[in-house]
Write a structure and sequence with these properties.
23% strand, 23 strands, seven-stranded mixed beta sheet, binds flavin-adenine dinucleotide, 17 helices, five-stranded antiparallel beta sheet, alpha/beta
Length: 513
């Protein structure tokens, strides 16, 4: 158990907030080398050396420095990592632009006339995304880290042994090191397809023109989000997956709901393919896919690879530090320790507990376990996940099959008789809550316009064991989408009324007349 004072210190050090709020200074300063230099420091021994300046690495190094640790952060490319440069930031900006396009197309249903359709100026859309990206990138500058006392070193880190790491010819000695080098797009082997000609999350946001015909390989979160985005911009999109359902990790009814919405936006699905190959053409290629008995041939201009991420371990010389890893990533225990005593790993580089959406929580665990004598478990984190399609999908806890295995009860409520959903013209959605007979919540899935904002309430209830009967007493403002949670809780409370209790109530009320 971690000592109470450590918990208090960590709670006070809302380091991520500090990182976000301190004075703005541009990343270019960092790139120009205006950072702490090794020669400025009396020795090269650190409490903590963090490798990788993505979301996890930044939060760990800033938080540890805030607590007084001597911290070096090694980054070989740009601060901010995938989330900022090739992940949630640019995708969220694109999703927002595509949603505006879709809303304008449906303006007439609100009684608004948009003259002669809408024109998507794709270069302008991308300029907007790039400018928002630049705005966010300013928050992740080397100068800000320097203000917090983090020594930033630019270059590829390479372990020398179990307590030393080398970067650009300088050897750093560490009491603890954290590997947070993230992951890169997986390149599936598809006969006839030249991987270097494909788009990935890494180069997608440099696109200058709207693809007329786009194939997306992988119908998971990123694939589904981008399929809807590009279809809404006007591309002809075909979405491929070996799995017979889109969003393979979602419950089948949830995946179906999303699929129907995407089809409504014009996306063509090629799911459950057993064979896939490409044939080169002058403008792009034709993708031949066998789904069941049928062969489909889709001519496309671009192919976007969205078939998962591969942990970045190359070049780290992990063998020298006795850090065990394989093609799935670095092997870590539930408390994020690697096979090497002084080295931890966190985030996308790990083979387990990658936990996207939880960088800050991971960072707190790493700091407590690396700098103090804690054994906080990443395995215990309750992490909601979100897919930013329209409608959004948000999930926390057990899935439907897991709930069935645990013999839990499931409450399912559609959105179509919720006033706010009707008024917003967004009735496609559902809420599922898996609970036991005492009203303890074990998991939930939301499909609706603001699912990602609403799932927090259920996650909080799960975290603090707030039962459904307590949620039923909680007032949700009318009319809101969040009212659906209150309705589910109310449905649970009504289910507690047995026929005997109901008969008794009836008699009692008759007597009171
Ligand atoms: C398209 C897409 C959409 C996503 N959407 C969301 C979302 O909506 N919400 C969400 O929470 N998550 C989202 N994610 C996941 C999120 O991006 C990751 O969970 C997060 O980036 C993981 O952070 P990380 O610090 O582990 O790795 P990264 O952010 O990848 O950072 C790793 C850093 O390490 C550096 N590095 C690598 N090797 C070395 C080396 N040898 N030496 C020095 N530095 C090195 C890299 O340059 C990089 O800066 C998305 C991911 C993608 C790809």
């Amino acid at each position: 158990m971690r000592a109470a004072w450590v918990g208090q210190v960590l709670a006070k050090a809302d380091f991520y907030c500090i990182l976000k709020c301190s004075k703005v200074c541009s990343e270019t300063q960092f790139l120009a080398g205006k950072t702490h230099k090794m020669s400025d420091t009396p020795s090269h021994r650190y409490n903590l050396v963090v490798i990788g300046g993505g979301l996890v690495g930044l939060a760990v190094s800033a938080g540890a420095a805030e607590l007084g640790a001597r911290v070096a952060l090694i980054e070989c490319h740009r601060l901010g990592g995938d989330s900022l440069h090739a992940g949630s930031a640019p995708t969220t900006a694109l999703v927002r632009a595509a949603r505006v396009a879709a809303e304008l197309r449906h303006a007439e249903s609100f009684g608004l006339r948009v003259p002669s359709g809408i024109v998507v100026d794709f270069p302008a859309v991308m300029d907007g995304v790039r400018s928002l990206h630049a705005q966010l990138a300013e928050r992740y500058s080397g100068a800000k880290l320097a203000e917090l006392g983090v020594e930033l070193l630019r270059g590829e880190a390479r372990f020398v042994d179990r307590t030393h790491v080398e970067v650009g010819g300088t050897i750093l000695e560490f009491a603890r090191a954290v590997i947070a080098t993230g992951a890169q797009p997986t390149v599936p082997s598809i006969p006839g397809l030249e991987p270097s000609a494909c788009l990935t999350a890494t180069n997608l946001f440099t696109l200058a023109e709207l693809p007329k015909r786009l194939a997306i390989i992988g119908a998971g979160t990123f694939g589904a989000e981008m399929a809807q985005v590009f279809a809404r911009f006007g591309s002809k999109v075909a979405l491929f997956d070996q799995h017979p359902q889109s969003l393979p990790h979602a419950d089948p009814d949830v995946a179906d709901l999303v699929r129907h919405t995407l089809e409504h936006d014009g996306v063509t699905f090629r799911l459950g393919y057993t064979e896939l190959h490409a044939e080169k053409t002058e403008t792009g290629c034709v993708l031949h896919a066998r789904c069941g008995e049928h062969w489909f041939a889709d001519p496309v201009d671009y192919v976007l690879l969205a078939a998962g991420r591969t942990p970045r371990t190359a070049g780290l010389n992990l063998e020298a530090a006795d850090v065990r890893y394989d093609e799935n990533g670095i092997w870590v225990t539930p408390i994020l320790r690697t096979s090497s005593l002084h080295i931890l790993a966190a985030g996308s580089v790990c083979a387990a507990y990658q936990l996207p959406y939880a960088a800050e929580a991971l960072a707190k665990i790493v700091i407590a376990n690396a700098l103090f004598f804690a054994a906080d478990r990443a395995a215990d984190l309750l992490v909601p996940s979100c897919t930013f399609t329209d409608p959004e999908v948000a999930h926390v806890g057990v899935t439907q099959p897991e709930a069935a295995e645990m013999k839990l009860r499931t409450l399912t409520l559609p959105f179509d008789d919720l006033d706010r959903a009707v008024l917003d013209r967004s009735e496609h959605g559902l809420l599922k809550i898996h609970h036991d007979k005492r009203g303890k919540i074990f998991g939930a899935t939301l499909v609706c316009a603001h699912a990602s904002e609403m799932i927090g309430e259920i996650a909080l209830a799960m975290q603090h064991d707030v039962r459904l009967s307590a949620l039923a007493a909680h007032i949700h403002p009318y009319p809101t989408q969040a009212e659906i949670i209150g309705r589910a809780a109310e449905a649970y409370r009504r289910s507690l009324v047995t026929p005997f209790m109901f008969r008794f109530l009836k008699r009692f009320l008759k007597w009171r007349r």
